[in-house]
Amino acid sequence: MATGQVQIKRLMAMPLRAAVKKIAGKAIQEARFAYRQYRISRSPIMLQPELFHSFESHMVFSYESPIREHAADYLREEGLDGEIIRDADRICAHIFNLLGSGDKNLGPFLPWSEDFKTGYRWENKYYQRIAIVNLDDAADVKVPWELSRFQHFFTLGKAYALTGNEKYAREFQTQLEDWMLKNPVEMSVNWTCAMDVAIRAANWIAVVPFFLKSLCIPDFFWDRFHACLYLHGAFIRSNLERTGEHTGNHYAADLAGLIALGLYFGGNDVQVGRFGETPREWLHFGMAELEKELFVQVNEDGTNYEASTSYHRLVAEIFLITTVWCSNNGISFSERYMKRLESMHEFLLNIMKPDGRSPLVGDADDGRYLIVSRYGNWVRSDFRHLLAVAGEFFNRDDFRSAGRGSAEDALWIIGGIKPHTKSRMIGMKSAAFPDGGYYILRSAQAYCLIRCGENSFHGHGAHSHNDQLSFELHVKGKDILVDPGSYVYSADFRARNLFRSTAMHNTLQIGELEQNDIEERNLFLLREQTFAASDSFTEHRFSGSHQGYLEKVGFIHRRQLELEQTGLVIFDTLEQAVPNSDPVTSAFVTFLLAPDVRITGHMMNWLLESGDCKLSIDFDGAGEVQLQYAWISASYGTRVRTRLLRAYIRNRCLKTNIRWV
């Protein structure tokens, strides 16, 4: 059903008076938007660059000279300079790999308003009149948004610091002038999401110290730059993303952008009266709201309430970098805030696998706030860059040790690195995070993460998957059983629904029923039906259940996992909770294999191999076991073939015995 048909169906379901009121409201709104577009097209929103002619920011960065020179020396000593320069040269050549596009040469002028993966281009018009999503085509608005975040600029800045080559400064200037010309304020797709406006502003601000003294960049450019940057702040303040049922990473980014702009402009408080609040007021508002928002979005156990490890990383990065920037400029948050922020990174430490990577539970869209290292090849499941920064900021050796390979991030964000020698995995034990719904079992050779908890946004489920009681298994440094990832959002709604479905996760499914019902075209809703909870948790044992099938067929799925020194035993039971309910005729448990796992066997006995790691998997209580093809996505827009085992249950009970030698 097309989007327009869905809207008509919803209107028909309303009482007549309410439907008329809604239609009239939309007509009035559209007329207002059309008038606004007309006015802006006749008189574009702009500030006279001369207002900023004598402006000089007093914002303090961690990489002011001579620290910047020290950082360049460090990069050379560590052999990181070659990769940085190669990445910067690719940026100058306009070669980008964004959101699964593969390497693309985007031509002499960057396609700021185009999904260059499909060739679809959004026309420049008033941002409120731009349809950013059409589920009936493959265009993905995240592509132009991602390019226009300018997260590649920090790499240009580093290359300039390393070489002094003015070509990097000229590229910085040329791209910005082109973007400002082709994206008038409020008149392109790159103004349709305040979060992306905020991230863009933060990335522009972050690179000013690199290029401000460039001899090839004239003063009049900086005047235009500052005028446009200021308008970013006015736009964010007027378009805060807090109108929905819950706030989330978007609103956190909005606030972080206001704080960054407030720090940057606030020292001088450029007076531009017709745009309302001053930058100093942006800063005060952003600080007060961010302090409150941390306790809205971050649970008491340090987990983010969006029920996604990738979004936890993004939100932690937004809060951490903003807090560091404030600290550098003599502004602090409460002690309670700092403790909760620290707990976010304790969670990141605890979910880390022995190989340093983390499971991608729930949605994952490659979202970042500021990319200061490895722009061209950062690993989406590696969160250690945050632990490196948090180690220095909170003065914690366990964080430092875990983030040892990402010291460059700490160097740029904090401005220094303290030596440390402790092994990063010393003291890593089983851990429970019931507020977020994550349970980690560890042994000398194995790691097992179990998902069991509330859907995101307190049951709304925007970034949740049907993954209750699903688990990942990592043995002897190898991924064995994994989460499927996310693949894409609106570019392919069927694939979106497949990757968040019950059948793609390592859990039990009854027939074709979903744990939480999926509305085919409502891609960011998964209303709570599971109410998953843990019954007990110890160092080597987890037990829990969910109610996703209770109202549908009268059964509760109960699962117990016991981690032993040389194996994992899983007990799945369908518990009849409604008397006289119809018997379950088809139920199966899925085991999704990592792509490089080799599998042989048949019936109830299978052999899994990955490198030198060998495992047997046996089923007791299965009527049939099938080996099927499946997909897995390690980053947004990419997917690779893998396989899964599907064990069909007899008599509502299944015991799965996984052994390694």
TrEMBL record:
Domain Heparinase II/III-like C-terminal per the UniProt entry, residue ranges: 429-660
InterPro entries: Chondroitin_lyas, Hepar_II_III_C, Hepar_II_III_N
Pfam families for this protein: Hepar_II_III_C, Hepar_II_III_N
Single GO molecular function: lyase activity
Localization per record: Periplasm
Residues annotated as domain Heparin-sulfate lyase N-terminal: 139-379
Gene3D superfamilies hit by this protein: 2.70.98.70, Chondroitin AC/alginate lyase
A cellular-component GO term for this protein: periplasmic space
Protein name per UniProt: Heparin-sulfate lyase N-terminal domain-containing protein
Biological source species: Paenibacillus dendrobii
